Amino acid sequence: MKGQRFLDSKWDYCLVLDACRYDVFSEVYDEYLEGTLEKRRSTGSSTPEWASRTFTGDHDIAYFSGNPFINDLGIPLNELKWGASCDYEWTANEHISDVVDVWKHGWDDDLGTVPPDSVAESFAEHRDLVETADRTVLHYMQPHAPYLARGTGQKLKQIQKGIRRQDEADEDEDDGGVLDSLGETVRPKVESTLEGSELAQKAGLWLELDPADLVRNGTRDAAMALYEENLRIALESVAALVPELEGRVVVTADHGEAFGEEGVWEHHIETHIPALMEVPWLVLE
């Protein structure tokens, strides 16, 4: 299986579907898009890992980001007080010429995420950036949870709250004292322990599922059904946008999503199993 070779491949527009598994994509994509599909291996099993290993130089790219980890805040990933703990000293705006924070202005409070149409709308509003950049990336949050049919988005809402708290802390320039320092020391260890627990991983996923579906179908089937629906919603939006794009268009993913394979649920940093590493690479006709 070929590596993703994201930047080395030829494209003018690359549409990134967050947490999109190759196998599910391969079963449904041709109902929406026509092209040549390959299975490729991502550089990471999570967005922070993928981004920090993909964008290592200076790139003239207009990047429309529905994902908060790829942002124009200028805060290194390892200093973020929200989201997964990691050691990556990487910031998007040090490597990407223009990052548009769609996750900020395109957020839907009812859905608890950035819907696909917000990415398309932001693209339409920033044509000037697209015209001056060498290439353009549109990073959709789907099929990543929350599942749009449910409209809860509890996990991403927690990230949004974390962003607000960090912004407020930066404005106050308060060191937070001993308790905050202790929290920053202990938190990564706690998160590491939880991520090693299959039960804890499933508990995180249960926030996004309907209890009745869980009882009736089990965690995997209930989640997979909503995951596929999320993917279809994203593909509908992508298919509507593609006719407006001039040049070579590719659809891919930053990483996949696990539903119990090898005891893993959702996606986690440096967890290199096929469900998380195998992503689609669709060159559109």
Shape: globular
Q: Strand order of the main beta sheet, please?
A: 1-3-10-7-2-6-4-5
Biggest β-sheet: count, sense, barrel?
8 strands, mixed
- Binned, the helix content reads 40-55%
InterPro entries: Alkaline_phosphatase_core_sf
Region (Disordered): 160-185
Biased composition (Acidic residues): 168-177
Q: How does this structure look, described?
A:
It is a single chain. With 285 residues, the chain is α/β, with parallel strands linked by helices. It has a single domain (2-284), classed as Alkaline Phosphatase, subunit A (3-Layer(aba) Sandwich). 41% of the residues lie in helices and 17% in strands. The protein has 10 helices and 10 strands. It has helices at residues 22-28, 47-54, 102-105, 116-125, 127-132, 154-172, 177-195, 198-206, 211-241, 274-277; strands spanning 2-3, 13-17, 35-41, 59-65, 96-101, 135-140, 249-252, 258-259, 265-266, 278-284. The strands form 2 sheets. It has an 8-stranded mixed β-sheet. It has a two-stranded antiparallel ribbon with strand order 8-9. β8 and β9 form a beta hairpin. The two termini are 22 Å apart. The relative contact order is 0.24. Residues 151-155 and 174-195 have low confidence and may be disordered.
